[in-house]
Amino acid sequence: MDDYQMLNPFPVVQERFNGSYPSSDAVAAVSTLYTNSYAIATAVLAHSIRTAKSSTRLILMYIDGQVSEEALCISRAAGWELLAVPRIAPHGGKGVRTQFIDQYTKLHIWSLDTIGIERLVYLDADALVRRNLDELFRLPFNFAAVPDVYGPGDARGFSITFNAGVLAIHPSSRILGNMRKKAETARYPIQQAEQAFLNLYFGTKAARLPYMYNALIAIKKRNPAVWEELKYKLAIVHYTDHKPFLLDSQPSSKILTPEEMRLAMDEAKSRYELWSEEFGWWCTAYQKMMSDNAVKIEQCGDPRGRAT
Question: Cys-Cys with 125: which of 40, 41, 57, 239 at CB 3.0–4.6 Å?
Answer without folding.
Answer: 41
